[in-house]
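Entry 12.
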Amino acid sequence: MTDTNQAIRQHAEQEYAHELTSLQEVETAARPPNWELSPWAFNGWQARQRRRH
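Predicted 3D structure (tokens):
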């Protein structure tokens, strides 16, 4: 039996934190209230991640 408190993998926000932080620093698109990235930036990042895997 496995430990139920142990994650199978990290959350994307944790695993890719360095990439997301870098994107935040250079992004200039408008962001919705309380969002850290614009939808445009996140969708572009997500598409690149899918191509990697």
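Annotation: Residues 9 and 15 are 9 Å apart (CA to CA). The chain has a mean pLDDT of 83.
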